Amino acid sequence: MDRPTLYIANKNYSSWSFRPWMALTGLGIDFEEVLIPFDDAAGNPNIKAVSPTGRVPLLQHGALKIWESLAIIEYAAELYPDAGLLPADRAQRALARSVSMEMLSSFRALSSACPMNIRRPKARIALPDGVDTDISRIEAIWRDLLQQSGGPFLFGAFGGADAMFAPVVNRFEIYDLVDRSDTLAYMQTMKAHPAWRKWEEAARAEPWVVPEDEV
């Protein structure tokens, strides 16, 4: 089987790159990583050269190109059915897809007000309308899934749904948004994962600074 290539952007800031990278790395799937920084306000032409949308992440497998984080995770789940990207149980797979799609399509107030930033020192900011609603809904998703599965991850073992929420873990921490014990425990579980630690180490070593994401 050809080794896929995952194109990503800055590890410090790129929440959408973080998701498929965390999923693939966390489950031991072998791939080549190509990082193209978004260090140009008009868009890095090197990204446009490989991606039909002009954005990353993008997974290339042979001649096939797959963009969007969730589509990449879904494709990898088909390519590596035994890796554990999705739950084995059909009902649980459907639920994992539902919460992953909700993460993809929702929570705009949170993501807009609180950009992912691995290097940012923990500090609160004034929150616009809608952020508290997003936080409450995400906490409810986590709480319900962890109660059903018994943890430590959303569906028991680490999987694609956890990876979809990985940037939220960073947002909740660096902007000091949550204080529920069960939320904090899940966040610590995620941050202790070897894939998270590998991404974080690389993010902290990056030289690029994107002013608009330095809230």
Helix count from the secondary structure assignment: 9
- What is the radius of gyration computed over CA atoms, rounded to a whole number of angstroms? 17 Å
DSSP strand count: 4
Major β-sheet strand ordering:
2-1-3-4
Helix-strand topology string: EHEHEEHHHHHHH
For the sheet with most strands, the description reads: 4 strands, mixed
Strand residue content: 5-15%
Low-confidence stretches: none
Can you give the helix content as a percent range? 40-55%
So what's the overall shape? globular
Structural classification: alpha+beta
* Span of the ends, CA to CA: 43 Å
Mean pLDDT across every amino acid position:
96
GO molecular function: glutathione transferase activity; maleylacetoacetate isomerase activity
InterPro entries: Glutathione-S-Trfase_C_sf, Glutathione_S-Trfase, Glutathione_S-Trfase_N, Thioredoxin-like_sf
Organism: Rhizobium redzepovicii
Protein name: Glutathione S-transferase family protein
What does this structure look like?
This is Glutathione S-transferase family protein. Pfam families: GST_C_2, GST_N_2. The chain is an alpha+beta fold and 215 residues long. The protein contains nine helices and four strands. It has helices at residues 15-26, 45-50, 69-79, 90-105, 108-113, 131-149, 160-174, 181-192, 194-205; strands at 5-8, 32-35, 58-61, 64-67. It has a four-stranded mixed beta sheet with strand order 2-1-3-4, covered by helices on one side. Helix 1 runs parallel beside helix 3 (69-79). The longest helix is centred in the middle third of the chain and has 19 residues, at 131-149. The protein is globular. The mean pLDDT is 96.
